Amino acid sequence: MDAQGRGRADNIDPADQWVLNPNTGEYELRLSPSAPQSGVPRPRRGTPANAGPGAGAARRAPERESPAAPGPDVPGPRRRRGAPAEPPPGRRKGRTKPKKSKAKKILLWTGGTMAFVLVAVSAAGYLYLKHLEGNVSTTDVGSAGKKGFSKDEAFNILIIGTDKRTGKGNEGYGDANSVGHADTNILLHVSKDRTNATALSIPRDLIVNVPDCPTKQADGTTKDIPGTQNVRFNISLGQAGRDPGCTMRTVKELTGISVDHFMMADFNAVKTLTTAVDGVEVCLAHAVNDKDSHLKLPAGKSTVKGEQALAFVRTRHSWGNEGDLDRIKVQQQFLGSLMRKMSSSDTLTSPTKLISLAEAATKALTVDTGIGSVSTLKDVALQLKKVPTKNISFVTVPVLDNPADGKYHKTVIVNPASAPDVFDAIKNDVSFTAVKQKEKKEKAAVAARLKGTRSAAADIRVDIYNGGAPAGSAQETLNWLQITEGVLKSSQLGNADATLSKTTLEYSPDQADQARKLADLMGLSASALKPGKSEKNSQGLPAIVLTLGKDFKGAGVSLSTPTKAPEVDKSTADKTVCAS
Q: Checking DSSP bridges between strand 26-29 and strand 222-225, what pairing results, if any?
């Protein structure tokens, strides 16, 4: 018999069986104590405790046990002042029950109903998450990315927009024969403390070297695709069967920045996402009637969604010099507006929009297996949501026209004078916007390591190890220190016991002045200095331990970590900029 049936059988109001638990704030089903409490019945009242098992059975069947009256040391139930005493407990059937007010009955019935509703909603929510899970497409990129997502570290996600004609209504877009090239590319870096993020746009026509790329095949085997030199960035995807992992490896080759994950979308993503949020506001400095993209908008602000939104981000010949670099700026402005709309109260307080957005986002995206579950994608979104839009910077890889093109500029190359500083800032988690200073005390303590006296170069004793730098780096550094800088008491001792990501200097307190001088010579930041112990050199004298890490760039090349991002042309996600 179910709970309500049992309640009716015992003349119990079913609403009374749902009780509010003050500890949890939730209603719980509590059945009456009418069910047998034990396999052996207790003696009836009036039956001696030592009577046999059949005693009293002939007179009548055992009745259900009533709640025991309070003993001498147990206080009875409290009652309101002036209220009549409750009659002694007896059988429920003959008991007169105080009448409940209509309001209380409604409240209790509602509580019971809501409990069932909440259970149903929870089940439906789980099923809906599983449904969303089925929407997401994944690609195994192997060692090109990370296997999981960390909420406690800075992370880099490569966002790729392909020109593949997949999806309804997209037959007239892009290259009819495209295998799905990397048409739009943004490396999104989110800082460790979540105070800022940088969206670095990589031009599709940038000349790069695409490295060798192992790709996972449908049958579980791995196919190695040879690299290609001096080609457009966009063919790092699709061409010769390259997958997004190849594009991630190309980004690492180009910038030195490790890419953790990727998200890839086709033309449909722009249409479905903008429709889900009921349009995105854009601004134009002049009216546009583009015959190629079919975008037709007046000057000033407009709201675009669906096909019109796609036309907006595809338009090239109506902006600036009609090239890809000016289209990138317009796309950055569009993404900033989309971010503002997705995080607006208008969207977040609308269940309809949120469900539409969840459906659109999961159907539109292909991601790596490291973030391939809906719960992990939710974690990524929540971490990104912590970053204020005013501190999300949009920048583009600094480039120059490719001299190999002659007078017809079709491609670009990395600007060797300014691009490395941009890459270094992202690698070292430096914001391109002014954010609140982090832990000034800790920074001051680290910076203090470089304050103090310096010894002469000739007095420095140092042992050099290779802990992750290119082969031969320890010998190269030894030669440079002895011949160029006059550090004659130096030795190189081969490979270190462990691989380090950063170059370090370990020294005992009495060698601090030598460590500071060596840091000056090598261009090491204060964080590279590790006070601790020295080691004995070949003469038995204490020597500083210099371990060259993966960040080593060559003898005499400064390794100072940037504390400020370079001045570049940028925009932020909180500002509305009119496309021109």
A: unpaired
Radius of gyration (C-alpha) of the chain in whole angstroms: 36
Q: Residues 105-159: pLDDT tens digits?
A: 544 545 555 455 545 555 566 666 677 778 889 999 999 999 999 999 999 999 9
Q: What is the pTM (predicted TM-score) of this model?
A: 0.67
CA distance 65 to 294: 82
| 215 phi-psi bin (left φ>0, alpha ψ -120 to 50, beta other) | beta
C-alpha dist (Å) from residue 191 to 343, 485, 534:
19, 37, 34
Q: How far is CA 223 from the centre of its chain?
A: 30
> Which DSSP string corresponds to 162-195?
E----STT-TTSS-TT----EEEEEEEEE-TTSS
Q: Are 232 and 209 in contact (CB under 8 A)?
A: no
Q: Which two tokens stand for residue 297?
A: 């908008």
3-state SS class at 346:
helix
CB of 535 within 8 A of CB of 545? yes
Amino acid at 459: D
What gap in Å lies between CA 98 and CA 96, rounded to an integer?
A: 7
- C-beta separation of 546 from 463 below 8 A: yes
